[in-house]
Amino acid sequence: MKKVVLIVTAMVLVACDKEVKKEYVTFSGQITNKNSDSIVLSAKDYSKTIKVNEDGSFSDTLFVTKGFFTFYDGGEYTGLFLKNGDDLQMTVNTDEFDESIEYIGEGSVDNNFLAENTRFQEQLLDFEIDEMDQAALKTKLAGVATELENFIHSQKDLDTAVVNRSRKGIANTIKSYQGYLGDLIALRTDLPKGRPSPVFSNYENHSGGTTSLTDLKGKYVYIDVWATWCGPCKAEIPHLKKVEEDYREKNIEFVSVSIDRPKDHEKWVSMVTDKELSGIQLYADKDWESKFVKEYYIKGIPRFILIDPDGNIISPNAPRPSDPELRNLLEELI
Predict the structure, then answer these.
(1) Could you tell me the residue ranges of all domains in the chain?
(2) Helices (H) and strands (E) in the chain, counts
(3) From CA 277, how far away is CA 226, in angstroms rounded?
(4) Geometric angle at alpha carbon 319, from 313 and 320, rounded to 5°
(5) Residue 114 to residue 146: CA distance in whole angstroms
(6) At 20, is the pLDDT very low, low, confident or very high (cuts 50, 70, 90)?
(7) How many whole angstroms separate alpha carbon 329 and alpha carbon 324?
(8) Is 252 helix (H, G, I), strand (E, B) or coil?
């Protein structure tokens, strides 16, 4: 009889052990003000679309390799760390998104840290650079890096992969901000208002022939540096068309300069025609390596530039067409 009891007990223990070591992730949650009827989880070699119900709830079983994933709700992204055995529950309000993300359940410690770390980074990197030079920026970002390191060090029970990835991410983030903010400081110091603008010469004009910036002297010039593959650039097109129409009779030229690579030249030609893009449509001579682009420190697009009738800089980083501040600026000038 004892043998039977021992065998039954052993079977129960084995069964329990198998239940604990589940080879999948249970991922569920609640989205307030959902952006879409589905969410997408993706990684390098993984993609899974999960249905979002009418009430914003979702749930699915995932078979994954331990690692980092991107969560996309149709509007914004956030990072997740998943491993088999997790039973993770997420809540998010898309009106606030990053600020509202919370997790409970198995796997929540790592993922709450990732969400908190994102919020902390945003808080630390939200500072003004109007009075900074390059040295001051470097000092400020070094302090940000130290605070982020201390924040990671203060956490307990994090997976080693999460710790290592987060520490590596600090260097990448600081480098990115040093470049981006450093360029903005360079714009302010090297290309101040009133200084003669860098020029472009003999850019291909979609309407035929070529155009140089000097051809437009005597008028204000609002330049849009863009490309056909750039989503944010294309999002500005309807706003730009409206501004162009509203200022059609004013002393201003609207110039769009494409930095599409040679392989996309015909795509540029077609898009200008198909989308009925107005203003002066030009094609830069050497895409990102064009002298005009490099002299304006353009490393991301769209970029908007405003020049006065004498060819001097008004703003090397002017408001976008979608920004009401552009109209305020133009009303003051024209």
Answers:
(1) 19-96, 203-333
(2) 8, 15
(3) 13
(4) 125
(5) 17
(6) low
(7) 9
(8) strand
* Beta carbons of 207 and 166 less than 8 angstroms apart: no
Judge whether 78 and 97 are in contact, CB under 8 Å. yes
Burial class (CB in 10 A: 0-12, 13-18, 19+), 197: buried
**Is the omega angle on the peptide bond into residue 302 within 30 degrees of 0, that is, cis?**
yes
CA dihedral for 166, 167, 169, 170, sign (positive or negative): positive
| Residue-level pLDDT at 21 | 67
Considering the candidates 62, 125, 185, 230, report the single residue annotated as catalytic.
Answer: 230
- For domain 203-333, the question of CATH label 2.170.150.40 is answered with no
Residue tagged 């155009």 (tokens): 211
Quick check: 236 and 321 in contact, CB under 8 A? yes
The residues near 6 (Cβ < 8 Å, ≥ 6 apart) are: none
Rounded Cα distance between 69 and 43, Å, is: 5
CB-based burial label for 198 (10 Å; 0-12, 13-18, 19+): middle
Q: Is the pLDDT of residue 266 over 80?
A: yes
Alpha-carbon distance 201 to 285, whole Å?
9
Put the strands of the sheet holding 210-211 in their side by side order. Answer: 210-211, 203-205, 280-283, 252-258, 220-226, 303-307, 313-315
Query: Measured between alpha carbons, how far is residue 311 from residues 107, 114, 193, 247, 327 in Å?
Result: 59, 48, 11, 19, 20
Q: Are the CB atoms for 70 and 41 separated by under 8 Å?
A: yes
Length of the chain: 334
Instruction: Check residue 75 and give its pLDDT.
Output: 85
Phi then psi dihedrals of residue 102, to 5 deg: -145, 155
pLDDT-above-90 percentage for the chain: 88
Q: Of these residues, 88, 92, 233, 271, which one is catalytic?
A: 233
Greatest pairwise CA separation for the chain in angstroms: 105
- pLDDT score of 265 more than 70: yes
Active site residue 16: no
Looking at the structure, give the CATH architecture of the domain made up of residues 19-96. Answer: Sandwich (2.60)
Residue reference for tokens 């064009």: 290
The predicted model scores a pTM of: 0.70
Residue 77, amino acid: Y
